[in-house]
Amino acid sequence: xxxxxxxxxxxxxxxxxxxxxxxxxxxxxxxxxxxxxxxxxxxxxxxxxxxxxxxxxxxxxxxxxxxxxxxxxxxxxxxxxxxxxxxxxxxxxxxxxxxxxxxxxxxxxxxxxxxxxxxxxxxxxxxxxxxxxxxxxxxxxxxxxxxxxxxxxxxxxxxxxxxxxxxxxxxxxxxxxxxxxxxxxxxxxxxxxxxxxxxxxxxxxxxxxxxxxxxxxxxxxxxxxxxxxxxxxxxxxxxxxxxxxxxxxxxxxxxxxxxxxxxxxxxxxxxxxxxxxxxxxxxxxxxxxxxxxxxxxxxxxxxxxxxxxxxxxxxxxxxxxxxxxxxxxxxxxxxxxxxxxxxx
Length: 344
Description:
Elements (H helix, E strand, L loop, with lengths): L1 H19 L4 H11 L3 H22 L17 H18 L3 H8 L4 H18 L4 H7 L12 H9 L3 H16 L3 H5 L1 H27 L13 H12 L7 H20 L10 H21 L5 H8 L4 H21 L8
């Protein structure tokens, strides 16, 4: 119960950021490619910078041991990060949202997003531990990382002799400075505030699970927010709650929905929406399935790899993010422009 409550705290912040701050990965990519605006991309970058500062700040205070973070438990795999990221990005474009965004839209009454969440959660669990797990394990085997963690700050610390936490804090500050270098973005206080809140939400995940690991009776992996496998876990809990304990991931998913619901009511945006075009629903279902499988292969989604893994400066984060961007760009081009005159 405690883990779920701590997960819900960060989840609520993320849900509020999605509805009140318009924090959205696909929206940020679409704005940059077709809208002539990089504001939401800079919000994302600012969130990463704040998350890095907060995460390495916790490490500097001795509150967490970064080497125990989930993203350092498995050796970095180029194929998994690239293929999984491309699949996730393409599926995200087809479905019109990532898993996190779909939960947030569901909080605003969008029933189409309910379908996306269901299909993505089922596809993620089917790829993680279901019938497709054998194929995934054969094509993208996971090897335990028993050496130096595959992290950017770890490499910088080894090469320069600078303490690990100092290297991480410096990189985080550089990213924040780069995002704030644009005068237009500096004048957008709402974007800066919500970007910072998203970064702090990621930090609450690391702090919460570290506290549970130190003070709880059951074992707890050092994790933060992600919205691929936890969506499937939430579906299982909804069906088997009496046999399954509440977890951080379930609380995080519920928190995003609650935060988005509150935000939509606050803005007066809550309204029931459904899909009127069967072709659109078909595309969204296919996209959600691709997205769920891709997230498991890449060991994270736009939030899991793009923010939580990025906050630890794991190698997988920038590679997966670039692949997600490329996959989303391909999918958006297919939807907006079409290939050879054909549009989905």
